[in-house]
């Protein structure tokens, strides 16, 4: 079974939850920018949470299913349609062989995720199916999808009809917004900033620049002052880390981030709020930051994922 | 060097264990020692460890492992230090065709330092460089120990494209560009070796802890070796 690509869309790539175990070789993790949306899409179609799906940016692709299948579209609302009719997001949808899946235009958010029961089946590169665009490897031939591509889909033994219609209630979704407030944990180099710099960072509103991409989001807003230097001995970069170079403007490191960096890191976005950033629109969205503790952050993230899983299980019991 | 490593938070899914605030062999050894220990004896929920100049970044899954449990575990590992000896460093030779069209900045490096081109090549290839970390791009190795005698400031304006395999230096650093990227370092030669191949296991030629020597080769050897490398890679 496969999905034929009739049109690639603006930037559609195969992503799973990322390539782990190779950062010490300088290899970025990549993976879905909004891991919650991909996890939810996979769970809706009965896949394990980390199967590969499509990350769809702003303008969606046009796909055709070569066999009956089950899909789910989550994340941004790009007006997903099956056979020309709009479908609901965050819901498992049955698609007959030959039907067209497309996207009629963005309403909210930036990145939509499409999972298909069985998962997108492309070769594993260093243990992952994520596309690393800059490096030109992983995913579908290391690049964005285009017309003529054929995406193999893995086998599934699930009863697609029984799963169709499962959905995730909006209560369980992250508070996506055009102007999200995002929680951070201060450090590892918060001591490189003046008290005033920290205060400005935690009270200001920062616009997501139009150059924001999968590697990182340059933000524009109130300048954040360093105590002395804006250089550190290069060290490791985690997802969501916020670097502040000498120009005093923060940069949030995202999925395709370099593994090491030499600017002081004032704070790191918590795992639960990475999805909020992933849905920000470059050149339009703005974010503000609120400090939290590690304990609260981990608790919140666990609850978010546990709720997602238990919500869907209840659904299955009802069938 | 910190007498006791500092534990810093890089969000809720990564822990920094920092051993100092400068580039030196002893700090690097302690970073690598902890990395080796955690790789051989990982705690459930640990995703991977990334050694850098003076700290180890431990990535973990907060759904399976709490910050507190991870820190406690690392403390235990640190106390058991001697039980996890570092592997013997590998000596890696990087063949390098110096100068000519592949080393357009070699004359500048020579002139800037009051040396002949041959002397620059002898200094560069006569040193053993420890690999402190990989980062910036896949397979890109940060090498320490460039001799003072050939230290040269970087280009005032970076080149928009540095060819893959370029052997370069800037300030007190030297290295090889694994893939074509923009770059501001001074290009002194090129290697026919593949520094990064996503299809190989491991995917990079160099690893943290390696000791690197550059070996001057002739043009004939360069082209012959380049062909063999492409055959090996298969693409």
Descriptive account of the structure:
The complex is a heterodimer of chains A (319) and B (235). Chain A has 319 residues and is α+β, with helices and mostly antiparallel strands. Helices cover 16% and strands 28% of the residues of chain A. Chain A has helices at 35-44, 160-163, 195-203, 274-278, 294-317, and strands spanning 2-7, 11-15, 53-57, 62-65, 69-77, 80-82, 85-86, 92-95, 100-103, 108-116, 150-152, 181-186, 205-208, 216-220, 235-236, 241-243, 251-253, 260-261, 265-269, 286-291. The model of chain A has no long low-confidence stretch (mean pLDDT 95). Chain B is α+β, with helices and mostly antiparallel strands and 235 residues long. Chain B is built from five helices and 13 strands. Chain B has helices spanning 25-40, 67-79, 106-112, 117-125, 219-233; strands spanning 6-9, 14-18, 46-51, 55-60, 91-98, 129-134, 141-143, 159-162, 166-170, 173-176, 181-183, 186-190, 211-216. The mean pLDDT of chain B is 93. Classes of the chains: A alpha+beta (319), B alpha+beta (235). At the A-B interface, strand 12, strand 15, strand 18, strand 19 and helix 5 of A face strand 2, strand 3 and strand 4 of B.
